Amino acid sequence: MVRALVTGCAGFIGSHLVERLLRAGQDVIGIDRFTDYYPPYLKERNLAQALKDPNFKLVKADILDIDEFPAVDWVFHLAGQPGVRASWGKDFQYYVHDNVEATQKLLEAYKSAHITKLVYSSSSSVYGDAPLPMSEDSVPLPISPYGVTKLAAEHLCYLYCRNYSVPTISLRYFTVYGPRQRPDMAIHKFTQSILKKERISIYGDGTQTRDFTFVDDVVEANMLAAESDMTWGCFNIGGGSRISVEQLISLLENLLDQEANVQYVEKQRGDVQDTLADTQKTQNLLRWQPRSQIEEGLQKYVDWISTL
Ligand code: UGA
What we know:
By secondary structure, the protein is α/β, with parallel strands linked by helices. It has a single domain, classed as NAD(P)-binding Rossmann-like Domain (Rossmann fold), CATH 3.40.50.720. It is about 40% helix and about 20% strand. The chain contains nine helices and twelve strands. The chain has helices spanning about 10-25, 40-50, 90-110, 145-165, 185-195, 215-225, 245-255, 280-285, 295-305, and strands at about 5, 25-30, 55-60, 75, 115-125, 170-175, 175, 200-205, 210-215, 230-235, 240-245, 260-265. β1 (about 5), α1 (about 10-25) and β2 (about 25-30) form a beta-alpha-beta unit. α1 packs across α6 and α3 (about 90-110) packs parallel to α4 (about 145-165). The two termini are about 35 Å apart. The relative contact order is 0.14. The chain binds uridine-5'-diphosphate-glucuronic acid. Uridine-5'-diphosphate-glucuronic acid (UGA) binds near residues 82, 124 and 245. Uridine-5'-diphosphate-glucuronic acid binds near residues 173, 185 and 208.
């Protein structure tokens, strides 16, 4: 039986990955600090299903406070301080602590433990405003402090692979959505605002685009990365559903059969204008490709909202 560690196990993507690993009959240890960046009860709800499984063990702790890490085959490192727009100013310290220092601690812990793979959850924000489609071959130039910390952690993965032979794969996710999406993200905020007849704030003019990626596709990418023979690499995980913020709002209006009330506010610092993943390398080397189109994924999201 494979043993897996999932950091950030109570989060949006982490909780789906835990369920996927448990379904595959694996032994899963989850670490989560239950930070209050968004209400911790949402994280408890994310984990409710997994906690019923005897093969799941939860460790509630900050990675930096853990002295001994469990012996495992696979490490999935999803813990981190998310949010592109909130990473300026004094709060940058939390991004450094959670995204850089915690990653270094984990790599130190496993540098001589003979794990089969460490899969690191990186972000399209490492690219900044790179030309489209964004390719792993381009030199990453983040434009947000958050992006800088995600890129720094990718570099840490590389150097622990190079110096200590820790097999690490970094997956660069492009705006992930689906059931349990974080409440600070656009699809969650827009859906709630439409349903509650509250006003949506569009940052900038709404023409900015995102290559939205459905959460199940991201989970599958993690499985393929863990199973692959590669010992190092960075891979784009983009859904192939690039639409603008205004188009996203129209799709949600149609699905919810209600009109949105929008206002345009200042463009946020650190927000890139457009994203689109070149996924050729991921298709060739990890045999991954996205399966969910945006309309189908949004329908699943809206269906999930109605069960709450
Ligand atoms: C998302 C995640 O939040 C990051 O953690 C992740 O690393 C990143 O994707 C990524 O792909 O690398 P973002 O693309 O900003 O970041 O995702 P959303 O928060 O869902 O925003 C999508 C778009 O909607 C952005 O252009 C944003 O400006 C816009 N938006 C968001 C608004 O116009 N209004 C809002 O209230 C929220």
